[in-house]
């Protein structure tokens, strides 16, 4: 099938499909006319890619994990270093969550301190340095 048909069947724009090819996630054949020709299995592969992206994985992660994926869910079959890669991604997410939590606590402290000085819901009065 050509890229337009794959796009129609998966709901993924052709430019995204070309990006997946650039990232080595899809490997179409080339027809005599130079057009990309995708096999029927490309539909499942694109669905897998989209679902893995929705799980927060990068295309680099997906390139590594895709050979372990089966079905459209996708199910990840045990293959070398699969769990290590997933655990590393989870560690990265945990670090981001910790950073965001610290930032949220700091902002709440600033808000609370400012509200104590001005009263809740009131705008602070301009200071001399604001003038």
UniProtKB/TrEMBL annotation:
Record CDD domains: HTH_MerR-like_sg3
Membrane-spanning ranges: none
UniProt domain HTH merR-type: residue ranges: 1-68
GO molecular function: DNA binding; DNA-binding transcription factor activity
Positions of the UniProt region annotated as Disordered: 112-131
InterPro entries on file: DNA-bd_dom_put_sf, MerR-type_HTH_dom, MerR_fam
SMART domains: HTH_MERR
Keyword Ubl conjugation: no
Origin: domain of life: Bacteria
Keywords from the UniProt entry: DNA-binding
Descriptive protein name: MerR family transcriptional regulator
Source species of the chain: Streptomyces curacoi
Classification lineage: Bacteria, Bacillati, Actinomycetota, Actinomycetes, Kitasatosporales
């Amino acid at each position: 099938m050509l890229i337009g048909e794959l796009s129609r069947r998966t709901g993924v724009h052709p430019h995204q499909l070309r990006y997946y090819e650039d990232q080595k996630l899809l490997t179409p054949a080339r027809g005599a006319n130079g057009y990309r020709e995708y096999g029927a299995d490309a539909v499942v592969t694109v669905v897998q890619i989209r679902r893995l992206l929705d799980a927060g994985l990068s295309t680099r992660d997906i390139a590594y994990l895709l050979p372990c994926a089966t079905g459209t869910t996708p199910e990840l079959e045990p293959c070398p270093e699969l769990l290590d890669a997933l655990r590393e991604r989870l560690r990265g997410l945990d670090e981001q969550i910790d950073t965001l939590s610290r930032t949220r606590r700091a902002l709440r402290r600033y808000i609370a301190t400012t509200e104590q000085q001005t009263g809740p819901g009131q705008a602070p009065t301009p200071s001399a340095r604001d003038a």
